[in-house]
Amino acid sequence: MKKRYAFLATGLLGAGILAGCGDSSAKEENKSIKIGATSGPYSDMVKEAIQPGLEKKGYNVEIVEFGDYIQPNIALGSGDIDANLFQHSIYLKTFAKEKNLDLKGLITVPTAPMGLYSKSYKSLDDVKTGAEVATPNDPTNQARALNLLAEQGWIELKADTDPLTVSEKDIVKNPKKLVIKPLEAAQLPRAIDSVDISAVPGNFALAAKFDLLDALALEKMDEQYRNLVAIKTSNEDKQLAKDLTAVVKSDDFNNVIEKSFKGFSKPDWVK
């Protein structure tokens, strides 16, 4: 990936973009809007791929950057912003329930996937028996990491286990005798200096200025882990929500992703 990012992050995952604020027609809506995003690739995505499309539709867009995963949803719920982009659906649903906020995911966007990074190995075929693998220690990201290891054939998981809740106790076979070392997600980029392989979530990889395409392998993302545009539920039928969806599904948006967000995993709705 040619473009590098400095990205403030916190373990998992990332969120959404705009909410409507008017009547059924764009001409009748207040077209001055605010979109919230965490600093880094997703604020860049709003600026480069979403804002131009909305401005073509007559909107005046202000981008509000946040440095944490709390305030973007608080601001959306209070109406201080019209939409946000930083989180996946699991986080959105959990946060909205805990804070009693009526928020909704509108559409998923291309998202930086978790990857296996190493200074010890240049390819998957080189990985030796007994390799040390650092994984996130939070349940959501550890499940992603274990699924990624299983995709490589390095471990086997219980067949009836929910892939979203997999843990180490669900490993039934470990033919490579991998030594799994759970760590705080923020430590995983630095862990490649002390372990053979580190399973790094995409946001932390970008924060550490990793090139996503340098990963030994990138996860096949479950749709629930992709970042999304979030709005207030009461605005899901407003014109702004319709226009935002149209912009994200446009050829112009996809062209920007292809050029500037290489390695990002595209949503299932992209055919």
From TrEMBL:
Pfam families: Lipoprotein_9
PROSITE patterns with a match to the protein in the record: PROKAR_LIPOPROTEIN
Keyword hit for Secreted: no
Annotated PANTHER family: D-METHIONINE-BINDING LIPOPROTEIN METQ, METHIONINE-BINDING LIPOPROTEIN METQ
Matches recorded under InterPro entries: Lipoprotein_NlpA
Membrane topology: Lipid-anchor
Subcellular location: Membrane
Species of the source: Exiguobacterium antarcticum
Similarity remark: Belongs to the nlpA lipoprotein family.
UniProt KW keywords: Lipoprotein, Membrane, Palmitate, Signal
Full protein name: Lipoprotein
